[in-house]
Design a protein that fits this description.
alpha+beta; 13 strands; 32% helix
Length: 311
């Protein structure tokens, strides 16, 4: 099948897989050169040269592929001129060969929205916790606001086991009702492991976690990384009862998780909307699980839910 005959959503993801690989290489190159160019956007909110250049690569490449596609990136930066060598105009054939779910097959560029976090886990990137870092490219429906597809790229996957020259990262992608690829869902550990933020813990976050009676709390960086812990069976729930996460943090991980049968909602158990005019912040927090989602929602204290509604 010629690429032009492939449904638009699969073509967007096929391009995004390759683009995320290029962004991952940019992130590694910036780290290798040692000039991170750190800018403080706010409290516990950093931006580096890797964030800026990776976003320019992703957004410019997507717009070259799909001129009518709306793309929203985390970093508030000027697009600027980007050398052709930074662009990625290839597509992943493995994605193009998939059979698109019927209800998604007729969606046009204008009916899709892309949410980009070029470097999820920036603080961890600057601190050398490189396995926490992901590149996130999520696709939502402009009409329903639903997260439909996503790419989660780990530039430093297995970085402790291979030489820097051999490091290529790994790319996980998924489409709802089709499945997720590049990762296998693993059996969960015994007990109840809850993963949450390393740097944005509040009394409300702690109250929500404690109500679940976890056997262990895994504090890590990055929404993408936390969802991968769920899929790999290393955690049972991702709990963040705070307005800190944004749409570009959760769209791609939600789509990948849902494509494997999991769930990602706010702390009230309601879907997170990804419309073009949706507030960028997820004001009512994030709750993600591989299974038994309603059990976790029901055990979140009403006081925590009420606190979420204040934002």
């Amino acid at each position: 099948m010629a690429a032009s005959n492939v449904p638009t959503i699969l073509r967007v993801i096929a391009a995004s897989v390759k683009i995320s690989n290029r962004a991952g290489q940019i992130i590694r190159d910036v780290m290798r050169q040692g000039e991170l160019g750190i800018v403080e956007k706010g409290i516990n909110d950093l931006q580096t040269e890797a964030d800026r250049t990776a976003q320019r690569c992703i957004t410019a490449s997507l717009r070259r592929h799909f001129p009518k596609l709306r793309v929203f990136g985390e970093e508030d930066i000027e697009e600027g001129d980007l050398p052709e060598s930074f662009l990625c105009l290839d597509s992943c054939n493995d994605v193009l060969k998939q059979k698109c779910p019927e209800r998604l097959s007729k969606l046009t560029e204008e009916e899709l929205i892309v949410w980009v976090d070029p470097l999820d886990g920036t603080a961890e990137y600057t601190q050398g916790l490189l396995d926490h870092v992901t590149v996130l490219i999520g696709v939502s429906s402009a009409k329903s606001g639903e997260a439909l597809a996503g790419v989660v790229h780990q530039p430093y996957h297995n970085y402790k086991s291979v030489s820097p020259e051999q490091l290529t990262g790994r790319c996980i992608w998924g489409v709802v009702e089709l499945g997720s690829f590049g990762i296998q869902r693993q059996q969960q550990l015994a007990g109840r492991v809850v993963t949450t933020s390393r740097s944005h813990l509040t009394a409300t976050v702690i109250d929500a976690i404690n109500a679940l009676q976890p056997t262990h709390i895994e504090k890590v960086g990055g929404a993408g990384h936390k969802v991968l812990l769920l899929i790999e069976g290393r955690a049972h729930a991702y709990v963040f009862a705070s307005p800190g996460c944004k749409k570009w943090d959760t769209c791609a991980p939600e789509a990948v998780l849902r494509a494997l049968g999991g769930s990602l909602t706010d702390m009230l158990g309601k879907s997170i909307p990804y419309f073009a005019d949706s507030p960028r912040g997820n004001s009512t927090g994030v709750l993600a699980t591989v299974k038994d989602h309603s059990w976790y929602v029901e055990r979140i204290p009403q006081a925590v839910k009420d606190d979420m509604l204040r934002y």
